[in-house]
Write a structure and sequence with these properties.
Order of helices and strands: HHHHHHHHHEHHHHHHHEE
Number of strands: 3
CATH architecture of one domain: Up-down Bundle
Strand order of the largest sheet: 1-2-3
Helix content: 55-70%
Length: 596
């Protein structure tokens, strides 16, 4: 039977449309192919350049800041110590602001870019204040009291430090999250690649800390603070165009919305329904995958029975007026996944808080340990004297050595007994760090006793040399070893246990623990200064610094007991992995290997 001419034309048109769709699909596949090529290892030099220079600038100044404040701005020791820890504390709080802006509005790329420019402006101000005589007090005249910095000079210093803290707060959390994003989704083994990134992330930070605590500190003490601050200022200026230049290579994700807003919505919804009775079956709680699609690519969070009062935010009532085609009012009704996001954060906070005392103890390396080094023999040769701030070098070396030993020796050995690819869980790793840190401050107290005893003998004999600064190596090294265990384990814990949409916030929480530790140190120094004479204003020989170290040791022992109890009752998050059977498949709750 012959087809009509109309039928023939229609068939030919269908073939053309089919071929057109095929070509269009090929173009889409080719476009997707090139999109998938973005990210990966090629982006790391551009990203790490910013992290390296930020760490070089901030640590290059903060490690030696106590000397700058006491020797050039003529501050008393305790005031300088509080200024250092207050600056570090503020710099540790700012990542929360940076993470909020990145997650909610700007994204990590633009947040890092603007924050780098802010940090650059602050470094220029610091360099000028250290270089121009009219912006700092005059040198101490012979047989005259030193003139402390006036209000204008202090104002310039504080403004510059605040700008550095703001800039650093935009860089620190976003670099880690942005770097991991370059691997996520690029390859099926992206999670393995993510942990490789963290290894390099810490290596770059360690290398920067090594350079800042040696070369930069030497330049600051022996060449001048103008050069000592000018070099990291130039390095930051160099890193900004490098980071921006890599823009075409980056895998850039759109902001998923503020995690803080979602947490607040769940809290408000649960409070508004506080009088609604609990449901007996968790399956009756509200779930809608379309709402959570952008924040649950790794899988939906499985319902847990902890903090059941929050489940009320997911109970459907008549007032909610749910329509299948509309998004509910999230201030009244939330999905189970969003409720579990808040529960995950609440489970993390007690262990996060255990890091505060640890970082408060570690902060003493930049304050009173520095003053101990100033009162000891730092002469290495006849023509070279070790800068006191360079003693932090032993912390960095021991930290990097421990990291290498942990990854190459300890993990393969421990995995034979535990069956875990990571050797031990991150909770055990953190616990080891807490335990070692106790000995760091305990040893520091005994070394101070020996230093003061030697100083007393020195006052009676003019031929007796000063005690060697290398007596401080054990306390610095123990701090480095403890940091390799606790700090890295702490960051891995926060990243791993945080909901996927809050990983930038998890990075910020890590730095917030540092901040809280610095503020705790400031408060502790202020209270000890007010109620005792342990911490003198000028001469350590007139005080009882060892008592202060042992006070911190006692606090760390109590903190270790607190952490042990928190870790014992901690429950890892679990994911409801979706199957391919359809949208209504239940999936399976999986706890992460590193959890408990």
């Amino acid at each position: 039977m012959e087809r009509s001419s109309t039928e023939v034309v229609e068939m030919e048109n269908k073939e053309v449309i089919k071929e057109g769709k095929s070509e269009m699909e090929k173009m889409d596949e080719l476009s997707d192919h090139f999109k998938r090529k973005k990210g990966g290892i090629i982006t790391m030099p551009f990203i790490f350049a910013t992290e390296f220079c930020e760490k070089l600038a901030v640590d290059g100044f903060s490690n030696n800041m106590a000397n700058y404040l006491t020797q050039h701005l003529h501050m008393p020791i305790t005031k300088a110590a509080n200024t250092v820890t207050t600056f570090s504390g503020t710099a540790g709080l700012m990542p929360l602001l940076g993470a909020f802006i990145a997650d909610s509005y700007a994204g990590p790329f633009w947040t890092i870019t603007v924050a780098s420019i802010t940090c650059q402006i602050a470094l220029v101000c610091l360099t000028l204040s250290a270089s121009l005589p009219q912006l700092r007090p005059p040198p101490c005249a012979a047989n005259h009291a030193c003139q402390e910095a006036n209000s204008r000079e202090i104002a310039i210093l504080y403004f510059s430090l605040l700008m550095v803290a703001i800039g650093s707060g935009g860089i620190r959390p976003c670099v880690a999250a942005f770097g991991v994003n370059q691997f996520v989704g690029v390859e099926p083994k992206h999670k393995t690649k993510a942990w490789v990134f963290f290894n390099w992330y810490y290596f770059v930070m360690g290398a920067s800390m090594l350079l800042s605590s040696t070369v930069l500190v030497y330049i600051q003490d022996n060449v001048g603070w103008g050069w000592g601050l000018g070099i990291p200022t130039a390095a930051m200026l160099f890193s900004i165009p490098i980071f921006v230049f890599g823009y075409p290579l980056y895998r850039i994700l759109d902001p998923a919305g503020s995690p803080f807003t979602r947490l607040l919505q769940v809290t408000v919804a649960a409070f508004r329904k506080r009088n609604v009775p609990f449901v007996s079956d968790p399956e009756m709680l509200y779930q809608k995958k379309e709402i959570d699609a952008s924040i649950s690519s790794d899988g939906m969070l499985h319902h847990t029975r902890q903090f059941q009062f929050l489940d009320k935010a997911a109970i459907v009532t008549v007032k909610d007026d749910i329509k299948a085609t509309q998004k509910p009012n999230l201030w009244r009704l939330n999905t189970v996944h969003r409720v579990e996001e808040l529960k995950s954060i609440m489970r993390m906070l007690p262990i996060w808080a255990a890091g505060i005392i640890f970082f408060a103890a570690s902060a003493q390396q930049r304050t009173f340990s520095l003053q101990q080094a100033n009162a000891m023999d730092r002469q290495l040769t006849k023509s070279f004297q070790i800068p006191s701030a360079s003693m932090f070098l032993f912390t960095v070396i021991s930290m990097l050595t421990t990291i290498a030993f942990y990854d190459r020796v300890f993990v393969p050995f421990a995995s034979k007994f535990t069956g875990l690819s990571q050797g031990i869980t991150f909770l055990h790793r953190m616990g080891m760090g807490f335990f070692i840190s106790i000995f760091a401050t305990l040893v520091a107290g005994f070394i101070e006793v020996k230093r003061k005893k030697h100083a007393a003998n020195l006052a009676k004999s003019t031929t007796l040399p000063l005690i060697s600064v290398f007596w401080l190596v054990p306390q610095y090294s123990l701090h480095g070893i403890s940091e390799a265990f606790m700090a890295i384990g702490h960051l891995h814990f926060l990243y791993d246990q945080a909901p996927e949409s809050m990983r930038s916030t998890a990075m910020a929480l890590f730095w917030t623990a540092n901040s809280a530790g610095d503020y705790a140190s400031t408060l502790l120094v202020s209270l000890v200064t007010k109620f005792s004479h342990w911490l003198p204003g000028k001469n350590l020989n007139n005080g009882k610094l060892e008592y202060f170290y042992w006070l911190i040791t006692c606090l760390q022992v109590l903190n270790f007991v607190y952490y042990f109890l928190c870790a014992k009752f901690f429950t890892s998050k679990s994911l409801q992995i979706q199957t391919n059977e359809g949208d209504d498949s239940k999936g399976k709750g999986l706890e992460l290997e590193n959890g408990v």
